[in-house]
């Protein structure tokens, strides 16, 4: 079976109750749940949480729930052990998990069509992982660092005179979803496998939400994307 696994722990410090905080009138966790359900490519959509309250919200949005221990729910827990726990919990219930897609709980811009297209990439290319990426808006090889006294210098001074259009594009994790071949993932226990492919998203669909300012910016972005039809929920 193919599963969507949405990690949603309680205990966020910068935005209290972040995973169930209303985002334009709906708990933010509801957006990835609804996107996963609408994608039509999952046998189960499951929220992994340490919170009874979060679990109840997940159920009301149409997801199933598994509870994970507190040692996998602190600020320093990486994503891979949470995914591993979710897969093994379902395996322990007698399910054969062939593929898992971890969708982040605070990803309101995730689109059902992108989820399903990324699955096609995973299957057709027979790789261990496909995850969302987006490009940096400026060439990373022209990046600057700043010392304690405020002076700046280039990370790669050899590119000071290189034209921007002669430099390769740089990409970063877009923080939306991670499709995984379950067997390969359980063997390697990491998301960034050697054969991982990037599913490229436009920058206007990507926004980390870590602070109240990020949250406000994301809501403004979402309203515009709704009006233009770029988001699907």
From TrEMBL:
InterPro entries: CMP-NeuNAc_synthase, Cytidylyl_trans, Nucleotide-diphossugar_trans, PseF. One of its GO terms (molecular function) is N-acylneuraminate cytidylyltransferase activity. It comes from the Bacteria. Pfam families: CTP_transf_3. Keywords: Nucleotidyltransferase, Transferase. SUPFAM superfamilies: Nucleotide-diphospho-sugar transferases. This is N-acylneuraminate cytidylyltransferase/pseudaminic acid cytidylyltransferase.
């Amino acid at each position: 079976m193919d599963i969507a696994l949405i990690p949603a722990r309680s205990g966020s410090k910068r935005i209290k109750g972040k995973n169930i905080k209303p985002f334009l009138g709906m708990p933010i966790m509801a957006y990835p749940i609804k996107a996963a359900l609408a994608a039509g490519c999952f046998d189960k959509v499951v929220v992994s949480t340490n919170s009874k309250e979060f679990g109840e919200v997940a159920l009301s949005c149409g997801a199933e729930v598994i509870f994970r221990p507190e040692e996998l729910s602190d600020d320093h827990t990486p994503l891979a052990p949470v995914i591993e726990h979710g897969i093994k919990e379902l395996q322990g219930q007698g399910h054969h998990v062939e593929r898992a897609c971890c969708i982040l709980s605070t990803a309101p811009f995730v689109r059902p069509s992108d989820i399903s297209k990324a699955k096609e990439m995973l299957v057709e290319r027979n790789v261990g992982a496909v995850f969302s990426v987006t490009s940096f808006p400026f060439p990373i090889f022209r990046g600057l660092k700043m010392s304690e006294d405020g002076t700046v210098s280039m990370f790669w001074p050899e590119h000071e005179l290189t034209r921007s259009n002669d430099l390769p594009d740089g990409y970063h994790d877009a923080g939306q979803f991670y499709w995984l071949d379950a067997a390969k993932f359980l063997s390697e226990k990491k998301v960034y496998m050697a054969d991982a492919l990037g599913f490229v998203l436009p920058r206007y669909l990507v926004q980390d939400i870590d602070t109240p300012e990020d949250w406000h910016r994301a809501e403004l972005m979402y309203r515009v994307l709704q009006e233009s039809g770029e988001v699907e929920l």
